[in-house]
């Protein structure tokens, strides 16, 4: 517990600095987390094929450097994904003696799981009103985690998915969703009173991100547990003492950040 607290004392100010700063600082930080997360994923599923991983790291770097053009450009993302897959398939054909199609798919999925999904933290921050709304990704994830914990120990009786996470309960899951949704709505109420945000129904946006984000946060947590059980590991990494690796600490944010981003795309009518 002491180690976890010390790590949190160090990490929280760093998180605040990079998210508040935005821009190149946040892009570098998210890119670093994405690459480390990919490494953790490959170590768990396919640690031997390092040359294939290098190709995936190179595409991840390219993606993060040109993320604005790839995401916002006309069909650029489709081109990027297609080229990425073709390169991996060519590699699989040329080096078929020590590479199989499963490793190719592992490399492809590792990028999308660890780098692409996490990159939505940066995409949210740089979007309209992003400096205010990016915190919803963390409110949904950590609010759900906290609410689920206390609701679980207070009311928990019925197991959620015991084969994946024996301690999680249905009552805890519901408590997490309720807590995150209420916190998101309170944050939206504060934003509405404190800032002028034209072209957006802030309470609706915050309510939706709190509800759907907290649901996806639990899916992210359980999916990470499923992958760790499949590979027989306790943690994906050891980068953060007391917390594990990047994928252990951000397994919920990996899905809440995209939820916030795409809800913003649908509900925000202005570009600033």
UniProtKB/TrEMBL annotation:
Pathway: Phospholipid metabolism; CDP-diacylglycerol biosynthesis; CDP-diacylglycerol from sn-glycerol 3-phosphate: step 3/3; Lipid metabolism. The keyword Lipid metabolism applies. Its EC number is 2.7.7.41. The chain crosses the membrane at residues 6-33, 54-71, 77-94, 101-123, 129-151, 172-190, 202-224. GO terms for biological process: CDP-diacylglycerol biosynthetic process. It catalyses: a 1,2-diacyl-sn-glycero-3-phosphate + CTP + H(+) = a CDP-1,2-diacyl-sn-glycerol + diphosphate. GO terms for cellular component: plasma membrane. It is an enzyme of class 2 (transferase). It is found in: Cell membrane. Its main location: membrane. It is a multi-pass membrane protein. InterPro entries: PC_trans. The keyword Glycoprotein does not apply. Keywords: Cell membrane, Lipid biosynthesis, Lipid metabolism, Membrane, Nucleotidyltransferase, Phospholipid biosynthesis, Phospholipid metabolism, Transferase, Transmembrane, Transmembrane helix. One of its GO terms (molecular function) is phosphatidate cytidylyltransferase activity. Belongs to the CDS family. This is Phosphatidate cytidylyltransferase.
